[in-house]
Amino acid sequence: MKYFLDHIAVNMVHEAEMISFYRDVLAFPAERLDTYRAGTVPFPSFRLTSDTIIDLFPESMWKGMPAGEESGGRFNHFCYALAESDWNALRERLAASRTAEEEGPVRRWGAHGYAISMYFRDPDGNLIEARYYPDDTEDGG
Fold first, then answer.
1. Is residue 99 a part of any domain in this protein?
2. What residues contact 64, with CB distance under 8 A and at least 6 apart?
3. Is residue 138 part of a domain?
4. Residue 141 is assigned to a structural domain of this protein
5. What is the pLDDT along the chain (141 residues), one digit of tens a residue?
6. Which one of 10, 77, 105, 124 is at 20 to 30 Å from 66 when CA atoms are compared?
7. Domain CATH for 48
8. In a domain, 15, yes or no
9. What pTM does this model have?
């Protein structure tokens, strides 16, 4: 199996400062920043590598989540991508281990455009997203 880190999601409180820091200080290329500012996508992304982006989640996306995820500056979740057949096998293993899927399958944005994702938690309660990119995925933005 081949895995790669797709994205990291970071909660943000100080939006202007966070965007400026990731874009100007760290010099990560912004993606979807104009469409985020126009209100047509829920968050901006910054390119780390060809396979990995960093998503900055505004307060509206994380406020009111369960304890441990209520403040900015905290990790939101991590996501990894795998082949569709491996994703389906993972779903079977999750069901067999009685690990609940919290959400999914759902269509979500990632480092390579739109993908099919599911969300679940590890034994310590950390949120994990696993996804696959369909062959006919179109980049959105």
1. yes
2. 70
3. no
4. no
5. 788 899 999 888 889 999 998 898 788 999 999 999 999 999 999 998 899 999 999 988 887 765 445 555 567 898 989 999 999 999 999 999 989 999 999 999 999 999 999 998 887 677 889 999 998 544 443
6. 105
7. 3.10.180.10
8. yes
9. 0.71
Which DSSP string corresponds to the chain? ---EEEEEEEE-SSHHHHHHIIIIIS-PPEESHHHHHTTSSS--EEESSSS-EEEEE-HHHHTTPSTTSSSTTSEEEEEEE--HHHHHHHHHHHHHTTPPEEEEEEEEEETTEEEEEEEEE-TT--EEEEEE--TTPPP--
